[in-house]
Amino acid sequence: MSRSYLFTSESVSEGHPDKVCDRISDMVVDTYLSKDPSSRVACETLTTTNKVVLAGEVRGPSVSKDQIISQVRDCIKDIGYEQDGFHWKNCEVDSFLHEQSADIAMGVDSGDNKDEGAGDQGIMFGYACIDTESLMPAPIHYSHQILLKMADARKNKGISELEPDSKSQVTMLYENGKPSKVTSLVISTQHKPNLSPSEIKEIVKPYVYESIPNNLLEDLKDEEFYVNPTGNFVIGGPDGDSGLTGRKIIVDTYGGAAPHGGGAFSGKDPSKVDRSAAYAARYLAKNIVAAKLADQCVIQLSYAIGVSKPLSIYINTNGTNKIDEAKIEKLIPDLFDLSPRGIREHLKLSNPIYVPTSAYGHFGREPLTTGHFSWEKTDLVDKLKSAI
């Protein structure tokens, strides 16, 4: 904790080709959950030049292919794609969604323990730290914030020079385990033709200074602030590169500051512990840090398909704990039912709340009264403190 080091994280915007796919896949999840909260969905999306392909398994209410295709177009329109190479109205959309495997359904619905089983095996991680008020690592938090403000400027404030596809990358110096300053910054953003990188830099610079505290930017040299370093970024989105659901899992989580279990989130209903247990692990880690039991906390959970209870619970506070880690581990099962059903009910995950998670991170967001980002609440803090 005493040494100094540089750490970098990146974010990508809702117009990045992979994020377009995440958005569409989560739209399918929300569509089914809005009709039946017990729906099962595992949807993958592929995008390329004026082409969208959906595939996967569903179980639940009847949703017509035409409705899905219409809503795909709505997603693309909302993101902002009206380009020759990718246009919400003109792109070809194919849907190959089909019924969920009966073998998977049997394991999920009724495991040997007569309770709802996990939708798959796997390991999931949650993390929290005191870098920022959202208890997220600073580099990924600020990377997200820059792109969120750029998207708002593009969609709501008339900044017509910017197009939907963009990326940000923040490198920070940590001293004594705490972020002390930004040492380099990279922003690549799709733009209208005939604009130079220096012109784009002047457009995006205000959003950087709105996103990152000024004291962290005081020593940032202009030559370490890179904007469109290739020189031109007019062709972008699915026209510039193909996209796939679930290809930005580190952007979705902690920017590499904590482990990732391997499973993507988007396109999956909450019976899939890849998603729901990762949310639960973040919820627990955030509450542990918010309760000041540790300055940072990694939690790992593991599951087997068809089995309701987690096979293991592991906590690592990297030496920042104020009480014994083993004691914290023992508290968790008493405070939170970590079965798939328990997670879903505690965090109210059966609601259609997933489209907003598809870009700018699943964690560190503001919990809303509509039920979105319920795993960001810190309502276990008092129970944790009283149990110590």
Task: Give the helices and strands, then pairings.
Elements: E1 5-12, H1 17-35, E2 40-48, E3 51-59, H2 65-79, E4 82-83, E5 86-87, E6 92-99, H3 102-109, E7 122-129, H4 138-156, E8 162-175, E9 178-191, H5 197-211, H6 214-217, E10 225-227, H7 237-240, E11 243-244, H8 249-252, H9 273-290, E12 296-303, E13 312-316, H10 325-335, H11 340-347, H12 381-387
Parallel strand pairs: 3-6, 9-10
Antiparallel strand pairs: 1-8, 2-3, 2-11, 4-5, 7-12, 8-9, 12-13
Helix pairs in contact: 1-2, 4-5, 9-11
Q: Tags for this entry?
A:
single chain, 388 residues, alpha+beta, 4-stranded mixed sheet, 12 helices, 13 strands, 34% helix, flat
Please provide the count of β strands: 13
* Major beta-sheet overview: 4 strands, mixed
| Overall outline | flat
Strand order of the largest sheet: 1-8-9-10
In short:
With 388 residues, the chain is of the alpha+beta class. Helix content is 34%, strand content 24%.
Give a written overview of the molecule.
It is built from 12 helices and 13 strands. α1 packs across α2. With 388 residues, it is α+β, with helices and mostly antiparallel strands. Strands 1-8-9-10 form a 4-stranded mixed beta sheet. Strands 6-3-2-11 form a 4-stranded mixed beta sheet. Strands 7-12-13 form a 3-stranded antiparallel beta sheet. 34% of the residues lie in helices and 24% in strands.
